[in-house]
Amino acid sequence: MEDLNAASLGDVKTWFTNYYGAANAVLVLAGDIEPDLALKKAEQYFGDIPSGPPVARYQTWIPKIPGTRREKLSDRVPLARLYKVWNIPPYGDANAVYLDLAGAILASGKTSRLYKRLVYDDQIATSVSASAEPNEISGQFQIVATAVSGGDLDRIEKAIDEEVARFLREGPTNEELQRAKAGKIAGFVRGIERIGGFGGKSDVLAMNETYRGSADFYKTPLKYTREATVQNLQRTASRWLTEDVYILEVHPYPKYETAESTVDRSALPKASADPEVKFPAFQRAALSNGMKIILAERHSIPAIKFSLQVNAGFAADQFATPGTGKLTMQMLDEGTTRRTALQISDELQLLGATLSAGSDLDSSTVNMSTLTATLNSALDIYADVILNPVFPEADFRRLQKQLLAGIEQEKNEPFGMGLRVFPGLLYGPGHAYGNPLTGSGTEASITKITPADLKNFHKTWFKANNATLIIVGDTTLQEITPKLEKLFADWKPGEIPTKNLAPVEQQKKSSVYLIDRPGSLQSVILAGHVGLPKSNPDEIAIDTMNVVLGGSFTSRVNMNLREDKHWAYGAGTFFMPARGQGPFIAYAPVQTDKTKESMLEIAKELNGVLGQKPVSTEELANAQKNETLSLPGSWETMDAVSSSIGNIVTFGLPDDYYSTYSGKVRALSVNDMSKVAQKVLHPDQLVWVVVGDRAKIEPGLRELGWGDISLLDADGNRVK
Questions:
Q1: Are 560 and 690 in the same domain?
Q2: How far apart are the first and last CA of the chain?
């Protein structure tokens, strides 16, 4: 803070002038554009920008840490955590690649040395990671472990030291090395499917040009990865996980010239016509047992994404103990009748495949990504996990403890506290959406769950006629259907329970609930009521109206509380998509002394969009652009396409939903905005949940005069 307070506007301008010159910048154009046109446009718009002064830079500087430096600090967190960090060579150095592979062997996957020792065997940590993070002039290798509740960091550190020492002494096995290589190469392949974003094509090219002076330098680390040997990893780890070194180079100033300007900078360049949006075509089929298949072919990279969607999710917990759905899906890959959890993890890594399972409000999903070359072997594991989970007792106890630790974290974090109690207040007991939105249940419910409950959940909901397999990638129906028919032939259809998604009436008037978090530096405000199902006919209009209200950075709620009042770093509103009446929620983490005032501003914005300040023509036009111009780039990856098809399946949307989306958005009028606002916003019937320091905020809440204030604990129980 001393540095920030001492900075002047002149300091900022000088810094900008020194570093924001053309000669210190790299521009990447990636996408649907030819190289000649890209160069022409770059020269046209950037060629006359002054180069700026030459920037002095270190090529390599690896700071030396003399001896062991140890420090302790305390923070408001529920679990202890240990970090161990070594300084290492920069990006592009072979040693950095070898250390990255060593990190994968130490802590990537359930069979990795540190994960197996700390999380599986000793069960003294909930998670552990090891990774090399090489930057431009140096890097860091770090091991991070989070303790179980009440865990001993000394014991964790001792275990880490023993496993690292064993690695330095014995080196990795050939199988460990091959598994690490497969994971790194597969991760790179999946990353470059995207045009932009971290790990996408433009990011890779820009980073390599900036760090190493050649956009295609990325081939060098890949070469190091493919050719790495057991001896490379052992020798490198033995050197760099014990000491550091510093080297400095100085070069003379280069000379730069700017091009003659031909650009009129008094106005922005005019954009061409909006691109036509085409959602990837997909085909439907079904297996003989009734399991539905949806395939979107995509042959740009040799990979395939599978996503099995089962109509269950957190809402299915109404037929079981809260938290059962989440824990069932977390345990799905913890062992089958043919494979242990470690064998599943091992085989997947050797194939360069990934598998995960989880739930959201309405659906339970099992996802797998595999390279085309390893399809058959990966599919065998995928079907085995879906059809034959055994929910081993030992693994169940471990994950049960981790889920309890997660609940402890949720009850310590303000947003987590609010989202845990909000559904019960909106939907009441007995409704499928009445449990915590996190799906984690309560300490009491999780403690009651047994492996038999998970088996029953799987038996009840995992049936062929209750599942849809979404496939995106490098295959065809003719190729994939026989494989699936063979693997899933014995999966039987059956009766499925009907979840209680009965309509819920709006409450008659607003109510305010306060959760005390003594010493909290800010208050978290949540306000909401039940909304409409995602599949309602006005859904597109509602989403567009919400972009104006609170669904974007420039929305009214965010611009008011963040940009105008400076009371919040970010605030907004959203309609949570659901099969039934998903909740509408306004949220704002605000400074404590502006809690009451922020609630008044949120209420003002909700009432304003209803009539006092309806959506304007300009706001609608901006929202329409926001909703439509972002679409062409939103389906870059197989994951993104799979997710959108998943929405069609989960919420019962028409198959042409995304193909016709842009046209429907552009056809909206300000009158449509007013109609849907009146239909879905009820500012006088809100449930307000405020998490903060009661002693500081309760008097202000009472001054609002919005009725009685109910005090709740982190589980939603009333406090006297």
A1: yes
A2: 41
Q: How confident is the model at residue 247 (pLDDT cuts 50, 70, 90)?
A: very low
Judged by average pLDDT, the poorest of 181-190, 203-212, 250-259, 368-377 is: 250-259
Asked if residue 272 belongs to a domain, the reply is no
Answer yes or no: is pLDDT of 254 > 70. Answer: no
Domain residues for the domain of 29 are 2-46
Angle at CA of residue 659, ends 655 and 662, nearest 5°? 135
What tens digit of pLDDT does each residue of 485-530 get?
Answer: 999 999 999 999 999 898 999 999 999 999 999 999 899 999 999 9
Contact 652, 646 (CB under 8 A): no
Helices (H), 113-229: 113-114, 153-170, 174-191, 201-212, 219-227
Residue 224 to residue 222: CA distance in whole angstroms:
5
User: Are 188 and 317 part of one and the same domain?
Assistant: no
Strand pairing partners for 583?
530
86 and 149 in a common domain? yes
CB neighbour burial string for 624-642, b if at least 16 within 10 angstroms, e if fewer: bebbbeebbeebbbbbbbb
Backbone angles phi, psi at 648, to 5 degrees: -60, -45
| 26, 206 Cβ separation under 8 angstroms | yes
**Total count of domains within the chain:** 4
358 and 306 in a single domain? The answer is: yes
Residue 55 lies in a domain: no
Strand partners for 289: none
**Residue closest to 456 by CA, chosen among 357, 310, 324, 367:** 324
pLDDT at 245 over 60: no
Q: How confident is the model at residue 172 (pLDDT cuts 50, 70, 90)?
A: very high
CATH no. for residue 96?
Answer: 3.30.830.10
Residue with tokens 């079907």: 383
- Whether the predicted pLDDT of 246 surpasses 60: no
Q: How many CB atoms lie within 10 A of CB 156?
A: 26
The pLDDT assigned to 444 comes to: 92
Instruction: Return the DSSP state at 315.
Output: G
Rg (CA), the chain: 28
> 660 in a domain, yes or no?
yes
The answer to whether residues 532 and 643 belong to one domain is yes
Residue 404 near residue 149, CB atoms below 8 Å:
yes
User: What angle do the packed helices 414-427 and 393-410 form, to 10 degrees?
Assistant: 100
**At residue 35, what is the residue type?**
P
Considering the domain boundaries, does residue 536 fall inside one?
A: yes
Q: Tokens 């939903």, residue?
A: 657
**The pTM is what?**
0.85
H-helix or E-strand spanning residue 134: strand 125-134
d(CA 453, CA 583): 29
